[in-house]
Amino acid sequence: MAHKKMRSSLVALVLVVALVMSGVDATVRYGFYDHSCPNAKQIVFKEIQKAYEKNTVALGILRLIFHDCFVREACPGVVSCADILAFASRDTVILTKGKGWEVPAGRMDGSVSNVSDPPLNLPPATFTSQELVSVFAS
């Protein structure tokens, strides 16, 4: 009887672990939002395109800190700001006639930001494209 009870407990434990693990997938991959927010990439592209048409300075668009307001309407609480930035950077390159690339998704946003976290040698937002190339080439 004890053996049967232990076996039932073990089966229940395995099922619980399997259920928990099936919901945990922190990998960055292509198609991450295919089911939860299938239009995420198109929404980001349209917003980048609108910004680009208003201001032809692509570097300014690349420096934007995006809020998820335009994706939030279509997919509340689904698309991370980190993924929005990745999509937006790719879209800006495409709009400036550069070669696009497939962007994997599934990045998680941080829950804490500290001013001391980023490196102190980041270039200021006022740098020209030539200054940025010089800084990143070194």
From TrEMBL:
Belongs to the peroxidase family. It comes from Physcomitrium patens (Spreading-leaved earth moss). Residues 27-138 form the Plant heme peroxidase family profile domain. Residues 1-26 form the signal peptide. It catalyses: 2 a phenolic donor + H2O2 = 2 a phenolic radical donor + 2 H2O. The record marks R63 as: Transition state stabilizer. PROSITE patterns: PEROXIDASE_2, PEROXIDASE_4. GO terms for biological process: response to oxidative stress. The keyword rRNA-binding does not apply. This is Plant heme peroxidase family profile domain-containing protein. Ca(2+) binds at D68, V71.
